[in-house]
Amino acid sequence: MAAERGLAMATCTAPVNIAVIKYWGKRDTDLILPINSSLSVTLHQDQLRTTTTAAASRDFTEDRLWLNGKEVDVGHPRVQACLREVSALARLYGLEEELSEVARRGSGSACRSMFGGFVQWQRGERPDGTDSLALQVAPETHWPELRVLVLVVSGEKKPVGSTAGMQTSVETSPLLKHRAEVVVPERLAQMMQHIQERDFEGFGQLAMRDSNQFHATCLDTFPPIFYLTDVSRHIIALVHRYNAHHGHTKVAYTFDAGPNAVIFALADAVAEFVEVVRRSFPPAANGDQFVRGLPVGSAALPQELLAAVLAEPLPGAVRYILHTKPGPGPQLVDDPSQHLLGADGLPRSRA
Amino acid sequence: MAAERGLAMATCTAPVNIAVIKYWGKRDTDLILPINSSLSVTLHQDQLRTTTTAAASRDFTEDRLWLNGKEVDVGHPRVQACLREVSALARLYGLEEELSEVARRGSGSACRSMFGGFVQWQRGERPDGTDSLALQVAPETHWPELRVLVLVVSGEKKPVGSTAGMQTSVETSPLLKHRAEVVVPERLAQMMQHIQERDFEGFGQLAMRDSNQFHATCLDTFPPIFYLTDVSRHIIALVHRYNAHHGHTKVAYTFDAGPNAVIFALADAVAEFVEVVRRSFPPAANGDQFVRGLPVGSAALPQELLAAVLAEPLPGAVRYILHTKPGPGPQLVDDPSQHLLGADGLPRSRA
How much is the CA Rg of chain A, to the nearest whole Å? Predict the structure, then answer.
């Protein structure tokens, strides 16, 4: 906190997380309590992050909020819920579980970004949600060889927002109910063990199965929800051909509520698979860098791999690949020049 | 049977059926016994049919079989099973349940084509399959207003055959198990009631839900199976927008193991919906007739319907529409000139 002229200001970066046991469906839409536990990998902030500056002053007469430089209405129930929680938090400073609760009130899965590495969001049992918390399963240093490739797909916006979509699923999908009650508890225990043992075969297989099952429950929703497109389907088929060729799980996909693919792999498999993706989805020659983030070595593809794995290429279908890895939780930014707000509490770009 | 020079010959046409409660998965792959009951509508043979001629003679020294004029190996286990059943049948002539069993041994869902109208294929309980039979729920005259539109979609072959696909589903999909054991028994009873009551709202809603759930279990299979494409997805979205505009279920889709859509509607809704499909998927100007089968009247689309229902058009994505309705079961062809085989037992085109 930088206190100058009665002003308290802090800037913080937070990571993105990607679930390997998926969250879909609330048992309480007001408190944002999930119908099942979920588990995610926190991605490194060197490649993907959000930056937030908070400023508090006795001189300020109202709460104001800017998202990506644009002012938004603080009257939204979720924003109100967060502001209320934060002000309560002032009295309980230092309790991490409370921070998890604040994040959850904003967007359920955001609570998993409160920690680095491998994070479980517990379903919890209590109606007040006090036991529906994010907990770290293993730190980001636990599995140093694990890598993540985000395949950013061209085009189409997601047709149904996740908040509305998951509620329709809870109300209409008999398969989602079975998944939440019977399938996920078993899978969560299995996934924790695969992570503890750094068992990529088990981890990758289960991540793919759980991604597919989440999208299956979207399709079982009425009216049905589709997040996977023909391009996602081509990526899925490519991963299965690639693994079949190698005789084991070298890469694994997972898809959230959108068509982008997230691929898990161990470091020594990245270069070859990136080259396979480049051959399958030849980049449009627009000068953009196709591979971004962590460096990727070059790989020569053996002829028998090409023959077994490549199908008809789909030029331009993948816009670019972001190469990253598991990373730490939220970071406080020390450098005051990084604050997004000025001393007047307004966005710097607007000051 | 036409007996000439010791030759017995019969020609028969058989209908196509489309399931509204889907069959997917066998509990016995040898006897072809399903994991759940299913229910279908038999389509009229004036628009879609198969024609089969059987010839038997003491002079013939071997079993031979031609499919679409091309000889196929009678050594295939399914062909053998059918020939064996048919020869047993000779001694039990006239028992319709036995015919159902013969058909089932060839291709499970084919047994539902043994009857016209609305047909249930009972799961059965006995390990020998003798109670896994097709039964007529209601004749084709039961619901005279019911119409069927087959939207034949361009391109792509189905990636995974249904025989291999459904077995992988039985082995890997936890959701399919739940569907077969818990969901289908309830839905089957509901669907029978909707049909008895000629309740299109209930019938259409449940047909759509069950189609979606079948495809959801395909996606929950590992590796996942996709039969729906982006075009199927556009058809599904169009149907939902169309029904939402009208405030009730005017049309309902169902998809089998391929991207073609089958649409149910009452007769008075056909012309308008066909026009909506024509605007959404403008036919390629190749001279082919876009609407085939039963005549379709013309419909003027009100401006507010167009605004509410049409999205960006996808030219050429639907090749043509076949308009048909429920029809009768297999028919014996009296006219000897229709026999596909000559007096020598060989295909006429080859004689």
Answer: 21
**What's the rounded Cα separation, in Å, for the pair A276 and A270?**
10
- Name the minimum distance, in Å, from the CA of A52 to any CA of chain B: 38
- Which pTM does this prediction carry? 0.90
Which helix or strand (DSSP H or E) is residue A275 part of? helix A270-280
Q: Is the pLDDT of residue B1 over 60?
A: no
Q: Does B222 touch chain A if contact means CB atoms closer than 8 Å?
A: yes
Pairing of the two strands B318-324 and B291-293: parallel
Residues in chain B closer than 8 A to A237 (CB atoms)? 159
Closest chain B residue to the Cα of A179, Cα to Cα:
B175
CB-based contact, A83 to chain B, within 8 Å: no
Helix (H) or strand (E) holding A39: strand A38-42
Q: pLDDT of B40-57, one tens digit each? A: 999 999 999 989 888 888
Q: Do A224 and B212 touch (CB under 8 A)?
A: yes
**The pair of three-digit structure tokens given for residue B143, joined into one six-digit string:** 């619901």
Nearest to B212 among A205, A212, A220 (CB): A220
Percent of chain A with pLDDT over 90: 63
For residue A113, pLDDT over 80 is answered with yes
Work out whether the CA dihedral A333, A335, A338, A342 comes out positive or negative: positive
Identify the pLDDT of residue A102: 67
Q: Is the pLDDT assigned to residue A2 strictly greater than 50?
A: no
Nearest alpha carbon to residue A220 among A277, A256, A168:
A168
- The closest CB to that of A224, out of B159, B226, B236, belongs to B236
For chain B, positions 18-37, list CB contacts with chain A under 8 A.
Answer: none
Q: Among residues A343, A151, A137, which one has the least CA distance to residue A229?
A: A151
Using CA atoms, how far residue B253 sits from B72, B186, B211, B233, in Å, is 35, 20, 8, 11
Q: Give B19's strand partners.
A: B40
Residue B140 confidence (pLDDT) above 80: yes
Give the residue among B143, B151, B125, B139 at the shortest CA–CA distance from B322: B151
Q: Per-residue pLDDT for B127 more than 60?
A: yes
Integer Cα distance of B132 and B124 in angstroms: 4
Count chain A–chain B contacts defined by CB atoms under 8 A: 77
Question: How close A216 comes to chain B (CA, Å)?
Answer: 4
Select the residue of B175, B183, B212 nearest A213 (Cβ to Cβ): B175
Query: Tens digits of per-residue pLDDT, A37-80?
Result: 999 999 999 999 989 888 888 888 888 898 888 998 888 887 88
| CATH 3.30.70.890 domain extents, chain A | 146-324
Tell me the per-residue pLDDT of A258-292, one tens digit each, with 9 for 90 and over. Answer: 889 999 999 999 999 999 999 999 997 765 699 99
Mutual angle of helices A96-106 and A77-89, in 10-degree steps: 170
| CATH 3.30.230.10 residue ranges for chain B | 2-140+334-338
Q: What is the pLDDT of residue B228?
A: 93
Cβ of residue B163 closer than 8 Å to a chain A Cβ = no
The CA distance from A21 to the nearest CA of chain B, in Å, is 14
Region A146-324: CATH code = 3.30.70.890
Q: Which of A205, A217, A233 sits opposite B216 (nearest CB)?
A: A217
Task: Look up the CATH number of domain B2-140+334-338.
Answer: 3.30.230.10
Contact flag A174-B183 (C-beta cutoff 8 Å): yes
Of A216, A230, A240, the CB nearest to B220: A216
Q: A2-139+343-350 has which CATH code?
A: 3.30.230.10
Neighbours of A185 (CB within 10 A): 12
